[in-house]
Amino acid sequence: MRKLGSPRQDPSAPKHYFIGRSASRARHVKRHDQPHLNALTAAIILFNSISTAAPQWAGFSPMAIFPARRRFVRLALTTVLFLTVYLFFAQPPALHPPPPPPPRGHHHSQEKNHAGAPEKPAYKPTSFDWASRPVAHPLDDSEIGRLPEGEPLALPQIQHAFTTTELTASHNETQRKRREEVRDAARRAWNAYKKHAFGRDELTPLTLSSRDTYAGWGATLVDSLDTLWIMGLKDEFYEAVGMVGKIDWNKPRSNICSLFETNIRFLGGLLSAYDLSGEEVLLRKAKELGDMLLAGFDTSTHMPTNSFDISLARKGRLVPSFSESLAAAGSLSLEFTRLSQLTGDNRYYAAVNHVTRALARAQEKTALPGLWPVFIDLRSPLLTAGNTFSLGASADSAYEYLSKMYILLGGRGDVYEKLHVDAMQAAARYLLFRPMPPPPGKGSSSDSIPLEEVLFTGTAYVSGHTYTLRPEVQHLGCFAGGMFALGGRLFSLPGHVQIGKQIALGCAWAYSRFPTGIMPEVSLLAPCDGAGMSKTVDDDDDDDDDNGAVSKKKNVTSPEDVPKCEWNQAKWEKLLRQQGSSADKDDELRLPKPWTSVKDPQYLLRPEAVESLFILWRVTGDAAMLDRAWEMWQSVKDATEVKDNGAFAAIRDVRIRRGEWQDSMESFWIAETLKYFFLAFSDPDVISLDDYVFNTEAHPFRIPKPRREDGPVKGFENRDRGQETHQQHQQQQHQQQQQQQVM
C-alpha cells in the first residue's frame, strides 16, 4: 500500500518514458513543418526569378544611373521579398485549444474562408440567456472554490511504454480489419439515425422512428460527435455540427430533464467535440448549456438537484433531494471543470467544488468508512445517511471521477488523490468477491481465464456494525476494472492495477458463459465462502476474510494468496432455491454455473465491459485484452445487429441465443460502446490516456500539460481518421467537386 506522502515514480527518469509518444510526435512534426518547407521553396523560386530578371530591369530602373548601388539595392529588395513570402506561407497550426468564444451577439456564420468554401457551421443563440438569471442562493465568498493556480504538474505516465516490437505484434492488418468493421458498424448506425430520427434523442431501431428520452435536444446527435470525429467520418461530423449550432436549450420537448444525463451526454459531448475539432460553435453551445445547468446548484444547500425542472430553475426555486443517487450528485465535476478551463469562467468549477468538499467531509463518517451510500440526503451537510454501498448503478461514476479530476486538474487537486485512494481501498475491502468455480468438464469454461484471477463487484448492506456482501453482478460495475487500473497507474499502486485486471477478466469470463456471448444486466452467482455472510465493519482480521476478494493488508489477490475454493453442488442448488430458480428448467433458460439467478436478463448495448478491456490494454500492454475485446465484439454484433436497416437493437434475454430484440438504441451505443471497440483496435497513440481523460459517457477531454510538454497531442494527428479543420475539409470537398466536373 502506498502512503499518501510517499514518493511517486519519477516519470522523467527512464528514457523509455516517451517511447509511446515520440513516434507520434515525430509524425506530427513532419506534418507541422510542411508549411515552412513549402514557404522556403516558394521564396527560393522567387529569388531565382528576381536574380534572372534583374539585368533586364536595370535598363529601365532609375537605379541604373547609380551603378555602384544597383547590386546592393537589388539584394535588399530580394531579401525583403524573401522574408515576406516566408512569413506569409509559414504560419504553423495552433498547438493550443482555440480561445473562448466571442461575446454573445457576435455572429460569423456568414463569413467565407479565403478559398470560397461553404460557410462555417452556423450558430443560433438559445432564446433565453441563462447567464443573466439572478442567483437566488449565492455562495458565500468563503465557500467559493477556485481553479488551482499554477502550471499543471507532469503526471506519471499512464499508458504502457509500448515498444516497436509490441506495436508490430499487436497492431497489424488484423487490427486494421477489426477497426474497419467497427467503423462500418458505426457508419451504418449513424446513417439509420440520420435517416429516421435526425435531431431527436434516439432512434427506435425496429419501428424506424424516434424517441425523446432526454428533453428532445438530440441526445444521439450530440453524444456521437466525437465518435464521428475520431473515426474520421468528417462529412457526418460537420453535418451534425450544423444541426447542433441551432439547438435551443430553452425549448425542450419535456420541461423536466435529468441534470446528470444532460451533463454527461450533452455538455460532455460538446466539450469533447470542441477539444478535438476546435469548432467554436460547439464551445458556445456548451457555455449556453453550462449556464443553464448551473441553475441546478441554485438551492438552499448549494447541492444539485437531479430532477431539473426548467421553469422552476429559471426562478431559483429548485429544492435539493432527500434521497439522491451518489452518481447524480458526484458526476458533474469533470464537465464543469473543463468548461471553466476553456472559458476562464470560475463559476462552473466553484459549483462542483462545493460538492467535492461535502463528499470529503463525509468520507470517513459513513457506515462503511471510505465509501459513500448509493443514495444520499442532499439536504444534510454530512451526506452520511444510507446503508447500501456499491460501485454499480447510481454510484459508479462518482467514484470514477475522483482520479480523473486529479488528472484534469494537472495534479493540482490533492484532495482528489486522497478521495480516490481511500475509496478504492475501502471498495477492495468491502465490495469485491470471487465466484465459485464451476465443476470441471464440458462447458465449465469457454476460454483460458483462470478463475483464481477473476473478481466481481458486489453490493454491501450495513446494519449496525455489521455488513453483508451480496454477490450481485451488474454490467454497469464492469467499468471498475478500468477505474482501478487507471488510478493504480496514476498513484503508483500496482496492486490496484492487478485488481482492475481481475475485474476486467471477470466480466470477459461472464460474457463467455451465456449463450449469446453477452452477460446480463443484473445477476447473482454463487461466491466463494465469505461473500453473503455478515461481518463486522471494523474487523481487520485477514484470517476471517475468506471471500478471496482482496487481502486487506496486501491490497491485491495473487493466485498464491487466494484461499482454495472448489465447486460445491449442494451449496449451488441451495442458493438456486433461495433465489427462486431451479436446476431443472428448460435447457434454453438454464443458468450457467455458478449463476444462481438472473434479475435482469437484458443487454442494453452497454460499454462497460469493453471499456475496461480497452483501458487495461492501454495501461498494461497485455495484447490478450485485444483478443477478448474482439470476441466480445463478435458476440455483440451478432446478437444486436438489425441487418435490414443498419441499426442495432437491445436484446431482452441474453440466455436465449436468437432471442427477441427491443426497440431501443440508446445514444451511448455510438458514443461509448462503438468508440471503445474502435479505440481498442487502434494504435495506442490515438486518443492516448496520457493526453485525454474520458468522462463517464466516453467523451475525451484534453489534459492540460506543463508548457515544456504542451505540444503535439496524440489523437490530433491526421492519421486514418483524417482529422482536419473545417476549412481544410471544405476545401477538400470543393476540390473534389471541381475534379468531378472536369471529368
Automatic annotation (TrEMBL):
Q: Catalytic positions? A: E261, D396, E521, E608
**Keyword Calcium on this protein?**
yes
Gene Ontology terms, cellular component aspect?
A: endoplasmic reticulum; membrane
**Positions bound to Ca(2+):** T696
Q: Where is the composition biased (Acidic residues)?
A: 538-547
* Enzyme Commission identifier(s): 3.2.1.-
A single GO BP term for this record reads: carbohydrate metabolic process
User: Which key words are in the record?
Assistant: Calcium, Disulfide bond, Glycosidase, Hydrolase, Membrane, Metal-binding, Transmembrane, Transmembrane helix
Q: Which family does it belong to?
A: Belongs to the glycosyl hydrolase 47 family.
Protein name as catalogued = alpha-1,2-Mannosidase
Origin species, per record, is Chaetomium thermophilum (strain DSM 1495 / CBS 144.50 / IMI 039719)
